[in-house]
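Narrative of activities, Objective 1.

The group set out to show that a structural description can be obtained from nothing but a protein's sequence at a throughput compatible with the screening campaign. Below is one input-output pair from the validation batch, recorded exactly as produced.
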Amino acid sequence: MGVLRLSVARSAYVARLVLLLVIVIGLLVRVWVAPFSSGSDIAQFAGFGDSFLRHGLCFYEYANASRWREEGWPYNWAFPYGPVWLYILGILRSYVRSPVKVVHDETLKVYVPLDWVVAVKAVLIAVDTLDALLIYLIVARRVGGWMGVGAAALYYLNPMTIYISSIFGMFDQLALLFLLGGLASLEWNRLVSGFLVGTALITKHTLLLPVAGVIIYSIVSRKFDVRLAAGLALGILLPFLPIVAACPSSLPSVYGSMMSTMEPSYTLPICYSFNGLSSLASYLHEVSGGDYLWILRNWLLPATLLALPVLAHIYVSRRVFEGAALAYTVFTAAYWRVNHQYLVPLVGLLVLLIFLGKEGFASRLLAFIITVFIGFWVVAFPTSWWFHVHIEKPNWDMIRLIDSLTLMIFDEEFYVGYSLMLTIQQYLLIIASTWRPTVTLVKRLWGRLSGRLRKR
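Output recorded for this entry:
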């Protein structure tokens, strides 16, 4: 018995060492590329941060970008998010004040200062690392340490998660962190769980469907109580309390800015579109000039058709990790505009489905294929673009190295095909994961209906 315990302890120790190795490798890659690249959003974040410092908690009166030139923003993009990321930008910008350089030449040129790139990405990389560690803890506590290591590696070493935090620079991993924390704490502290889930939604409202999935799961499994409801309310409302107290007149602008990106339009450039139907419609419009916008406007139809079996899955199986993963898959499979940063939470949640899912081998295999396929985009895309377009003094040695590691595909047709394949894979995953629970639920409902009819 003592030998067995020693063997188990040694295995757990080795697993933690391998986890440390995974984190070190992933962290080194992120830190290596981070200072030499920048996406356009990092430049815009500086403008948002400056406006927040200038106007304080009345920032949302300017968030719709109607006065973007006066505010000194590089682009006329609104701030369509809740205040969590805004507070972080304000803190960062209060210490790092280097201006973004905007050159109005034959084409608009925007250059981001190095210290601002490093400041923003330091937060994103730290959050990304916490996501990986949290995924490890969730999986390790349920199916063992080695499985936890595999789950963390599949997330942390995925090229797309590295790309979003360390090359392009977007904060979807922050919303994922809150959601993972809410999922992990649901069994032991519902107040904390509700608070984290609510904060995830306010951080980025693209997590609406998995948050709804968590709420529905808690209701059908009789875990929705006063503590969970209070936590949700606090998580959603608390970030807004300073704004309500200091500048209540800006509240309508909060809603307006968050809804400003909801109106469907063609998803150009196509290489950044990850909904297959939207990419195809945009490509056909670009080639033929025909009107295909109706495809994008009717995105709620496939979303509803996909959401119904996911609801059946949550009701029958009552497994919250799978339910959240499939609910978010509905969003990325059906929403009219899917940006690459939206795929980071998808990778994180699908990793949980792969290692904790109980719907059979086909479902978990499809989830694995999707996570790998998502990472392939970074290899296919001319990723070195972000190493010089916003960097005034590019590191050309780094650019040549990145070019040698990527396929440098520029053809729009490739990205139309890629997004179609990604969307089809997600449809198949939802079908493979939900058909048994859906059939079970239909049989139950039919049995109850038949019983009532016989009684009459």
